[in-house]
Every structure is written in structure tokens, then in C-alpha cells.
Amino acid sequence: MRFLRLLPFLFLLPAAAVPVVPGAVTPEVDNPTVYDPPPAQKLKTYYEALAKSGSVEEAARYEGEIYLILTRNASPTINFLMESASLAMEAEDTETARKALTRVTELDPNYAEGLARLATLAYDDGDLVQAESLLKRALRIEPRHFAAWTGLGLVREDLGDYRGAEAAYREALFLHPYLDGAKRGLIRMEARLDGLSL
What we know:
Blueprint lengths: L1 H5 L32 H13 L4 H15 L5 H15 L3 H14 L4 H13 L3 H14 L4 H14 L2 H14 L4 H18 L1
Helix pairs in contact: 2-3, 4-5, 5-6, 6-7, 6-8, 7-8, 8-9, 8-10, 9-10
């Protein structure tokens, strides 16, 4: 399950501390007049801060906040299914996880996180074409999804598309400069492409 180890936060999201972000105001319970930016605005702020983060620890805080937003859905049913899929993956019950995530993508075909998680299962099944298709769909919906870019790099690498893999890893690192899986992937691709050019 190389893909799942590469992207553990797709299923086991860490509880992240709320980072201090310029322009992002945390609402106070006893002060309803405090402005609470909408999720899209918060997401933009966190992505920008992540790209400029100065340490692994700082990046981890923004990454956690981004995933808290990405995994929320207006539908309680989808939220329940996503939680069920996470629990199933923890228990290594991939069939239950697959059923839950497939249902998620049927209920909301434009939910990027559901597509990205289903792609991990397709990859582990050895269905690289399906995994690539799901990841591309997820990235059309959320082009800043650095985990999906890293996953796409891994899929392309396994398909032998080394230049495509290199480009995907570079995109992931542009969005998240401390993403270890993408760093390792880029090193592998640079070494392989250097060897091919000799």
C-alpha cells in the first residue's frame, strides 16, 4: 500500500492547532459580531500561507487546517460515509472503504476529497488508469490539492511517464514545500531522467 503510506493524511487526518494567519479571524463565541471568513476565503489564506511556510512544523499546521476544510461537506450523509471510510481503512477493511467512497462520489461527483481517497484504493488494486482518472477529476475541482498531485506523480511514475511524474511532484512542492513524499518522488525522477539523457 505504497500510495496510502505516501498520503496518510487522506485517511488519518491529524488534529492540528489553529495557526495564526494574517487576515484570518477566529470567531469568539461571546462576540457574534466578529467576522468569520467563509471557507473558500480561509482555504485561500491557508494555501498561501502553506506555500510560504518557513518550517515543517508551520507547514503541518496549515496542512491540518486545509484538510479540516477540504473534508467538510454540506451533506451529513457524505460526512458519515467519509468517516466510515476512514475507520474502515484504519481496520484495513478496504472493501467497506471502497463501497463508502464510491457512494460518496455518486452522491457528490464534485467532491474532490472523495475522488482523491477513492483513487488511493484504485492504486492499491493496481488499477493505475482508474487512479489517474480519479486524481485528474479531483484536481479539476481543486487544483491546489497537493496530496492529489503527489498521488498523480506516483501513478505516472508507475506508468513509466517520468516527465509527467516529475511535473506532478513539482506542482505538489510548489503548493506544499515540505511534502516529503513529493520531495522523494522528485529526486527519483530527476535521477531517472538524468540517466535517460546520458
